[in-house]
Amino acid sequence: IYKHSGELVAKHAFRVASGLDSMVLGETQILGQLKSAVRTAELAGTLGPKLRQLFDASFSVAKFVRTETDVGAHSVSLAAASVKVGERIFGSLSNVNVLFVGAGEMNRICAEYFVSYGIQNISCSNRTLSRAKDLAETLSGDYFPLSDVAHKLEKFDIVLSCTGSPIPVLGKRAIEKAIEARRHKPILLIDLAVPRDIELEASELEDVFLYTVDDLGEIVNDGMRNREGAAREAEKIIVERLVQFKSQLDRKKRIPVIKKFRKRGELIVQIELEKALSSIAKGERPEEVVKVLSRAISNKFMDEPSRALNNDSTGEKLSLSEALERLYGLNKN
Fold first, then answer.
1. Which residues make Cβ contacts (< 8 Å) with residue 134, sequence separation at least 6?
2. Which CATH architecture has domain 78-219?
3. Domain ranges for the chain
4. Threshold 0.90, pTM exceeds
5. Helices and strands (H, E) in the chain, number of each type
6. Is cis: bond before 166, omega within 30 of 0?
7. What is the reported pLDDT for 177?
8. Once rounded to an integer, what is the mean pLDDT over residues 251-269?
9. SS3 at position 185
């Protein structure tokens, strides 16, 4: 449980929105959750002006961090690494056909990531057909039994396999036939299983790109190192934006005082102006009236600061004196 106060509240909000406080460094899901929470609070009438200002600043910082750093640009999960490898081979993945062999937790996570990435043509296969059906239905995809994989392999551009089988479920010969049927159109095979689901010899085939969980692990580790470097840049940005945010809050705090000061000045001018106009109406010389008016306004403005300087204690007098010198530029030549 976090408990912060003062500027640490803003710093925490900035870091969370930027993905620096997440278990997966740089992930973007938390930002969406924050925005959703703000909308809910707004609808419920519980989002006051101070919280609105804090979250608006947090979202602005998060956007700037992602624009100016690579904190979210590198693959740090097996699912993201799989997509990255697919883009290297096929470019756009919008029209690729993807097969998930196995219906366990790892494949479910990867399949959901693929769908969130905009990949729609998804099929699932599993030894227990009902589990393949359940997974496929959550993804709006197709499904078929594990025994049909070898015969249907040629239809798929990306095959991601993660079963609990003690022996490979995809052999080199079946893959070779699929490549021939595809007229040597590339196929990406991703083996996340331990022990392996796909015979390693399949990597020897032309136009077959085989990646194991170890290969993807290297991509993920590289991504984490890159994100950690970007996170250090992001932390510097947050410190700078925190200073700006504090300055913005301080300016807002001073606005009521400035308004009161201006209102008081306007009231002094109005009162003295009415006196001056009355004097002119009585026939007094305008030149003399203007002199009296200017002295009266000047005295009214200087009276209270002068009395405060004379009456306050030594410490307060010193700070008031410094404030007056700064406000009116009294040290200037």
1. 103
2. 3-Layer(aba) Sandwich (3.40)
3. 7-74+223-250, 78-219, 255-328
4. no
5. 11, 6
6. no
7. 96
8. 89
9. coil
